[in-house]
Amino acid sequence: MLSVSKDKINSLFEAIAKDKTLYLPVDNSSGKANFEKWQKGTKLSEALKTVRSAKDFFFPKTEKMVGYKVEAGNITVEDPRKELDDFVVFGVRACDAKAFDIFDKVYLEMTPTDSYYKNRRDHAIVITLACSEPVKNCFCSSYGLDAANPAGDVSAWLAGGDYYFNANTDKGKKFLDSVKGALKEKDAAAVDAEKKAIKAKIEKLPFAHLDLEKFKNVPMMTLFNSDVWAKLSESCLGCGTCTYVCPSCMCFDVRDYDTGHGIEQSRTWDSCMYSDFTQMAAANPRLTQKERFRQRFMHKLVYYPMAHEKLFMCVGCGRCLDSCPIHMNIVKVIKAFNEADLGGK
Amino acid sequence: MQELTSELIKIAKEKLASGAVQQVIGWRRGLFDEDVTPSTFKDAADLEKNFVFNKYCKANLSKYLVKITRAIETAKTTTRTNNAMAKQRDPNAAEAPIPNEKVLAFLKPGDTHSFCQLLKENRITRDDVYVVAVPCSCEMDESVKEGEGCDHCRNKKHVVYDEVVGKAREEAVADPSRFDGVEKIAAMSADERHEFWKNEFSRCIRCNACRDVCPACTCEKCVFDNNNLYTSQKVAQVPFEESLYHIIRAWHVAGRCTDCGECSRVCPEHIPLHLLNRKFVKDIDEIYGPYIAGSDMETKPPMLTWTAGDAEPSVVYERSPEEEGGE
To answer: Which range, of B128-142, B145-159, B172-186, B298-312, averages the lowest pLDDT?
Structure first.
């Protein structure tokens, strides 16, 4: 397997950055990590998770869709899709990589295809990194994910002081060929040992096997009408933290902005938790926070799986467990329903 | 910690059983020790099983009382209106009894300041709340040294309560390190300061958690809820909107911010937002004399009153170092 020692990883980054933009997790002034552009001197973060997920690369928080410029009586239309170059994202975890599949089902596989999203997907090479130290908030295994074998164009492992790389796609193979100079062939025994170790660690996590049966079998309206929602949502602040740190939340709003010499149309992240979400002529049809809260979890655990081959719209990254100001999260929702008596069939 | 939890549960159960209160607001046990959720309790079994009070109970409960006491007051008004209407139809109609509900709230020293400030702004009905003063969660936290308040209480005293568990903090203790963070930023040059905040705000995702948790932010409709302006709740379209949001928020809570630190606690991107508010607290102290929002019901808020001795607007220019300001 191709590898590079941990202390020489920067030589690989340098080789990648020669002709492509490279993004990787970097610690910032708050002591937490986020994906940032690699430059000479940038240090890869050791953090397990970035505060924001890797969805930013395909679904940025603000994305310019079209620009209209008015100059001397003429209007020119700008297409920002043309400005994107190939880029590489290093250090994506298994959960975030799985979230790309969830996005793909909506933005690529349904018609019409989202050409902005597709453009970004086409230009990206995703290098995933296995989770050597999963933490107690992680529950990707509940959704059948394997953090020891993350997907992506290239999978990477940190084992015994070396990074190992394996290509999963043609794009990944081509990419590894292009940076071969910075890598060495090495026996992969350490990777197998690391995979075993990761699996053993995951088995010991408190939410390694959450019971999701009720969300597969109980009728939608029984779940929808359950009185469990009122208690769960009672202290929800209605902020958008959970939706914005979530790797699989994909709602947006389209807005125009008058720049003074033209118009920019952008899409920006939007959140079902907000009172001005899906604003219609009268109001937001979800009048109180209970309905907004219910929408988020019904979408993730019921509506999306109904529409997309029983795939849950949650990857178990645990970011909502870390970030919610009142510590309400999807694990608590799942557990509350498992404990609740939902009545007969 | 365990003992204190049991004591609070005992008080809550007694008050519920006697009918003195109909609900209790406190903290609900989570999956671990640290993920407690603000929550209401209405029966003894729920309290026994799920109520908790530990060092992670940092959430300020006062803001929830705005909604809760309003529901209590609305129930009263509705019944009165219904009675009056029934009387119009039939002068001999029986009057429905006016509901007289009460909520028990466990408030830490910092929470009582927010509570008092909300009382002052007529956002909470005092008679609807039975306040039980509890120690600050930081007193159970080994990492906070004794006598050194945490970022939430800053050694504040209990200002409003009906009953107290243990010993109430009757005197605020001066906290000399409180403005260290503000002074550090004030010592920067204007460019450095701009860079500092630009870097911090660059991480803002406009989740609005700082606003939604803030006990001073209780507007029925926030200026940032306006879809017709470039300032709806959604993610900012241009980076300036993020700065605008934080600056306006800081100005709007100036003189009303009790420095409870919730904004910084909830920020998922760990932006030190409390420093903005604390800068205003410090400036008000210096320009208008010492003032702690929510510390009593009587003192007039300096930003809402005018006295002959007030600083002239030119003080802003005078306070700016020569090379930076005044233009």
So the answer is: B145-159
Amino acid found at B93: A
B208 interface with A at CB cutoff 8 Å: yes
d(CA A262, CA A278): 27
Instruction: Look at A268 and B234 and tell me if their CB atoms are within 8 Å.
Output: yes
pLDDT digits (tens, 9 = 90+) for B75-97: 999 999 999 999 999 999 999 99
Question: What is the C-alpha to C-alpha distance for residues A131 and B63, in angstroms, rounded to an integer?
Answer: 40
Residue pair B109/B150 in contact by the 8 Å Cβ criterion: no
Here the tokens at position A291 are 């309905």
> In this complex, do B31 and A29 lie within 8 Å of one another by their Cβ atoms?
no
Q: Is residue B315 predicted with pLDDT exceeding 80?
A: no
The whole-angstrom separation of Cα B318 and Cα A335 is 60
**Who among A29, A51, A270 is closest to B234 (CB)?**
A270
Is B36 in Cβ contact with A239 (below 8 Å)? Answer: no
C-alpha distances (whole Å) from A339 to each of A25, B32, B140 are 38, 17, 31
- CB-based contact B233 A244, cutoff 8 Å: no
Q: By CB neighbour count within 10 A (0-12 exposed, 13-18 middle, 19+ buried), where does B309 fall? A: exposed
Q: How many residues does chain A have?
A: 345
User: Of A342, A327, A313, A270, which Cα lies nearest the Cα of A95?
Assistant: A313
What does the H/E/C string look like for chain A?
CEEEEHHHHHHHHHHHHCCCEEEEEEECCCCCEEEEECCCCCCCCCCCCCCCCHHHHCCCCEEEEEEEEEECCEEEEECHHHHCCCEEEEEECHHHHHHHHHHHHHHCCCCCCCHHHHHHHHHEEEEEECCCCCCCCCCHHHHCCCCCCCCCCEEEEEECCEEEEEECCHHHHHHHHHCHHHCEECCCHHHHHHHHHHHHHHHCCCCCCCCCHHHHHCCHHHHHCCCHHHHHHCCCCCCCHHHHHCCCCCCEEEEEEECCCEEEEEEEECCCCCCCCCCCCCCCCCCCHHHHHHHHHHHHHHHHHHHCCCCCCCCCCCHHHHHCCCCCCHHHHHHHHHHCCCCCC
| Unique residue bearing structure tokens 């990477």 | A156
pLDDT per 10-residue tile (average), chain A, 345 residues = 95 95 96 96 95 97 93 90 93 98 97 96 97 97 97 96 96 96 94 97 97 95 96 96 97 89 91 91 91 98 96 97 96 96 71
- Tokens found for residue A239: 């902020």
Tell me the residue type at A320.
Answer: C
Q: In this structure, what token pair is assigned to residue B146?
A: 């004794």
A243 to chain B: closest CA residue: B207
B199 touches chain A (CB under 8 A): yes
As given in the structure block, the two tokens for residue A251 are 């709602």
Cβ of B237 within 8 Å of Cβ of A266? The answer is yes
Is a pLDDT exceeding 80 seen at residue B154? no
| Segment 49-108 of chain B within 8 Å of chain A by CB | 59, 64
Q: What is the pLDDT of residue A255?
A: 87
